[in-house]
Q: What sequence folds into this?
């Protein structure tokens, strides 16, 4: 398996060809790397990552793109600690270095943004200053100083960012570089100057990598694959590896799209660039590669020499070691949902994963690493994500576990969510849990409703009980008069043909604004239904901004012919129509429809809990939220139960 074989970069040997790439984590203390960073990177090194690129650090204090963005001048000790922690595992560690330029933020630095030319950023609309000679010299010197600091800290090298969020890329692009001086006549001049300065600071025996945007997806003026191939050939002799990425400020979702974009989307682009450099420098494939088999094919077919699998290793830090051991089926899949690993927003969340909540929190809850003294007999009521994760954790610690699920199969709302348009990958995570429960010999009973009598019997037998009973439909907030209103969960579980009793137009009511409403519309439109969606917001799916799918989702809806009824709330659903009200003007409007699909909030199904208050519970039966909370609470509930185990199997008081 080539993927797990060593590779030599600048005379240094990485134990595998899997790269853990640079990404925002919000793990820092101020603008420095913290002990949480150290634990985070060490965990991936222990799992077999070959090359680890730390979170991109700004090379000059004029760049402060997000609150906890590392500053190279403050990173030396953190780099040293990361390198020392990862070295025993064999992984090579290089420091990500960059400057966001006009894509940064003036909110923190409180100074003008730097840019090649006076071109307002398409996202913030802020007008930057045009860099002059002193700033250009300072930028190049900043890269060199940062590289020198990384080398002094004992790291194996650095990676220069000329990718999506990058001032260096802005100089390469006709979208943002309108200069008429030497840096405008030769747009690669700054890149070459930076690479030469960094190489001199590093010396010949340390790694110099380059992350290069090879397609800005704006062919009218931006970097095209053909231009990028020329740039790659021009700088190949200056670098030790090249990461091929795509995207720019024009396409913020392009570099790290969610599960609506097929994995491996950069394969053809990477292949063309690798052919252009003709073996002069190792090339790294990047682009939602989450399946080791897919990564292996890319190596076998000559697409790349290494493969970046960042989100996949957030989902399962042991990806490489499990693949190397021939246990690929045990790798927890990354579903590319972007719900917890994409953290560059105003909330400052810490990086994590919906399927592996310990990612980003490696320094917390040492109970996960311990062993239990005794053996419990546990009844888990509910086979959704919370119940499955609780059962997995308990069985993995040696306890006897039975899961009873009232539905026909395990998975709960996760299976339902997988039926939403474009989100089938979520089903892979449910499949993984099922396989893990089989491996751990968990007893699974489906198609049976647990009653109060069952709880009495469990208590009499000395069994512990964990409730993960999920949710039920919540309030609708509008009047229903002889109208067909279908819950989204029912539609997704049964399919449109069975769930909608009447042919004709469908109106989707979406008071939440997450992936459900937009996905249901895509499903209905794709099934031939005339579809409209009603939202109180100015745009459809406002919560999708957090995962990077907001613009793309609205584009897909319009291409599918879905009518977007924005800034409106439903008031009355009658036979054949839905009356909505404009939230600003109060104007009423009638939408003709045969059925209404409701995508609103849900309420906990707490029937058993109210009958047995104090019983340990987890997930939606506490409060319906996201997959992440369900998994995290299932794990915590399992650990709480396990903490009560005694050697004789009795419960501690």
A:
């Amino acid at each position: 398996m080539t993927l797990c074989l060593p590779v030599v970069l600048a005379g240094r040997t990485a134990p595998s060809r899997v790269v853990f790439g640079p990404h925002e984590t919000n793990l820092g203390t101020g603008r420095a790397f913290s002990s949480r960073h150290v634990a985070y990177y060490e965990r991936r090194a222990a799992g077999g990552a070959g090359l680890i690129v730390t979170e991109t650090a700004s090379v000059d204090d004029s760049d402060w793109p997000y609150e906890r963005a590392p500053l190279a001048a403050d990173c030396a000790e953190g780099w040293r600690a990361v390198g020392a922690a990862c070295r025993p595992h064999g992984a090579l560690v290089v420091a990500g270095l960059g400057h966001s330029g006009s894509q940064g933020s003036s909110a923190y630095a409180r100074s003008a943004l730097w840019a090649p030319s006076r071109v307002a950023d398409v996202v913030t609309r802020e007008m930057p200053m045009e860099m002059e000679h002193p700033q250009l010299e300072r930028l190049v010197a900043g890269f060199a100083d940062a590289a020198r600091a990384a080398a002094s800290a004992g790291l194996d090298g650095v990676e220069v960012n000329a990718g999506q969020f990058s001032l260096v890329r802005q100089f390469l692009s006709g979208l943002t570089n309108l200069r008429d001086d030497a840096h405008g006549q030769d747009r690669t001049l700054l890149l070459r100057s930076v690479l030469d300065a960094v190489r001199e600071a590093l010396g010949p025996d340390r790694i110099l990598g380059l992350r290069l945007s090879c397609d800005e997806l704006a062919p009218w003026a931006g970097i095209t694959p053909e231009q990028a191939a020329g740039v790659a050939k021009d700088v190949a002799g200056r670098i030790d590896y090249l990461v091929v990425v795509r995207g720019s400020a024009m396409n913020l979702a392009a570099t790290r799209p969610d599960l609506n974009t097929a994995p491996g989307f950069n394969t053809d682009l990477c292949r063309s660039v690798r052919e252009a450099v003709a073996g002069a420098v190792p090339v790294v494939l990047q682009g939602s590669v989450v399946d080791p088999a897919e990564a292996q094919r890319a190596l076998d077919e000559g697409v790349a020499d290494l493969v970046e699998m960042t989100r996949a290793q957030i989902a399962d830090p042991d990806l490489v070691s499990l693949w190397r051991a021939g246990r690929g089926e045990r790798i927890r899949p990354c579903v590319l949902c972007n719900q917890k690993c994409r953290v560059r927003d105003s909330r400052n969340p810490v990086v994590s994963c919906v399927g592996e909540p310990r990612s980003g929190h490696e320094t917390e809850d040492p109970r996960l690493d311990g062993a239990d003294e005794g053996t419990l007999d546990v009844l888990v009521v509910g086979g959704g994500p919370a119940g499955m994760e609780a059962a997995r954790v308990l069985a993995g610690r040696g306890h006897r576990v039975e899961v009873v699920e009232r539905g026909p199969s395990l998975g709960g709302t996760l299976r339902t969510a997988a039926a939403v348009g474009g989100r089938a990958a979520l089903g892979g995570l449910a499949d993984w849990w099922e396989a893990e429960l089989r491996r751990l010999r968990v007893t699974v009973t489906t198609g049976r409703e647990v009653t109060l009598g069952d709880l009495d019997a469990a208590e009499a037998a000395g069994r512990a009980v964990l409730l993960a009973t999920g949710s039920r439909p919540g309030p609708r907030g509008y009047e229903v008069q002889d109208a067909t209103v279908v819950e989204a969960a029912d539609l997704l579980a049964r399919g449109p043909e069975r769930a909608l009793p009447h042919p004709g137009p469908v109106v989707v009511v979406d008071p939440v604004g997450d992936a459900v409403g937009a996905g249901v519309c895509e499903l209905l439109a794709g099934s031939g239904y005339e579809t409209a969606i009603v939202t109180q917001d100015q745009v459809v799916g406002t919560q999708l901004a957090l995962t990077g799918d907001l613009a793309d989702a609205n584009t897909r809806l319009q291409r599918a012919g879905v009518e977007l009824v924005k800034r409106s709330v439903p008031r009355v659903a009658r036979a054949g129509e839905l009356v909505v009200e404009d939230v600003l003007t109060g104007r009423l409007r009638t939408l003709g429809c045969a059925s209404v699909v409701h995508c609103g909030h849900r309420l906990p199904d707490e029937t058993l809990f109210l009958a047995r208050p104090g019983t340990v519970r987890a997930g939606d039966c506490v409060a319906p939220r996201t997959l992440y909370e369900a998994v995290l609470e299932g794990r915590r509930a399992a650990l709480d139960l396990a903490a009560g185990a005694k050697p004789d199997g009795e419960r501690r008081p």
